[in-house]
């Protein structure tokens, strides 16, 4: 069975593992998911990510990050642009998540960027997800 929305699947797995206090979460690998994991790591939401060979294809494993008293570093994740309704943002009207405390992940002509990186480069694109 083919997956209609792999990014939504990734975010749902991440949300479920985070709420269940799991240390790691695994999913099928893709370059787009690896770039989203890169952004989450650089912004401090996850500890690390690795790719491993599997029986078929590769597996992407995210190591979740928790505070000293097991506080979650990810408070919430929301998929914005879906296959049934694409959401785009102009460079002059980029979304702010929680007044700048969270990040918006955008797919731009310069690759996947956060809202702050896109504003600095002056590009807009498809709003994939909000993370806070």
From TrEMBL:
Write out the GO biological process terms.
translation
**Per UniProt, which keywords does this protein have?**
Ribonucleoprotein, Ribosomal protein, RNA-binding, rRNA-binding
User: Do the record's keywords include Phosphoprotein?
Assistant: no
Signal peptide residue numbers: none
GO: which molecular function terms? Answer: rRNA binding; structural constituent of ribosome
Q: List GO terms (cellular component aspect).
A: cytoplasm; ribonucleoprotein complex; ribosome
Q: Which family does it belong to?
A: Belongs to the universal ribosomal protein uS8 family.
Descriptive protein name: Small ribosomal subunit protein uS8
Question: Taxonomic classification, please?
Answer: Bacteria, Bacillati, Actinomycetota, Actinomycetes, Micrococcales
- Gene transcribed to yield this protein: rpsH
């Amino acid at each position: 069975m083919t997956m209609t929305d792999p990014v939504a699947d990734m975010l749902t797995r991440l949300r479920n593992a985070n709420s269940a206090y799991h240390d790691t979460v695994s999913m099928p690998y893709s370059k787009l998911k690896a770039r989203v994991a890169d952004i989450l790591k650089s912004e401090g939401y996850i500890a690390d990510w690795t790719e491993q060979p599997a029986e078929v294809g590769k597996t992407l494993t995210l190591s979740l990050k928790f505070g000293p008293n097991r506080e979650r570093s990810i408070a919430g994740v929301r998929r914005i642009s879906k296959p049934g309704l694409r959401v785009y943002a102009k460079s002059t009207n980029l979304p702010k998540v929680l007044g700048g405390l969270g990040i918006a992940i955008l797919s731009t002509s310069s690759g996947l960027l956060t809202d702050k990186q896109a504003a600095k480069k002056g590009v807009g694109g498809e709003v994939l997800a909000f993370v806070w």
